[in-house]
Specification:
162 residues, alpha+beta, Aminopeptidase, 7-stranded mixed sheet, 4 helices, 7 strands, 25% helix, disordered N terminus
Length: 162
């Protein structure tokens, strides 16, 4: 597998692809997760997501996993649980690509809405979600662990198949 840094040579133009994740991707998923979050998910949490009601997708540049998204389907609603792009791959549209992919998949499976929580301090993610049509529908006080206590979450929703 090529090193991630080698994929950013301007003379190369690797195509971003999205594919379902498998358990064998877990070491790369954990590496990305640990680099992106102050309170990363555990291996056990990720393993619990390999169930029929969950959808796990990976974004790849060439053979390298550079991002992932995890959702769970509950009745007619999709809950976005985790969306993450490798720090060395940020600014390349990976988060948006994954988000549009999961929205298209959910729409195709006749789901009615996508719901997510995002840290109030995560303005980059909030901007991405708004750009893709999500609207804030509420707040969850003290939802996320933070270095100095807890942080509120913004709850956002996107209606599908209106």
């Amino acid at each position: 597998m090529p090193k991630l840094e080698s994929l950013y040579d301007p003379s190369q133009d690797p195509e971003l692809t999205v594919r379902p994740l498998v358990r064998e991707d877990l070491p790369e998923i954990l590496d990305i997760e640990r680099q992106c979050h102050s309170h990363p998910w555990t291996e056990g949490l990720f393993l619990d997501c390999f169930k029929p009601s969950y959808r796990l997708w990976g974004a790849c540049l060439g053979d390298s996993l550079v991002g992932f998204s995890i959702v769970v389907y509950m009745l007619d609603e999709v809950q976005l649980l985790n969306l993450c792009a490798h720090p060395n791959a940020r600014g390349r549209g990976i988060g948006g690509h994954l988000l549009r992919h999961l929205i298209a998949e959910a729409t195709g499976e006749n789901m009615n809405q996508v719901v997510l929580e995002v840290r109030l301090s995560n303005s980059v993610a909030s901007k991405l979600y708004r750009k893709e049509g999500f609207e804030e529908i509420g707040r969850r006080p003290r939802y996320y662990p933070a270095p100095s206590g807890r942080e509120d979450a913004r709850v956002m929703s996107l209606l599908l198949n209106p």
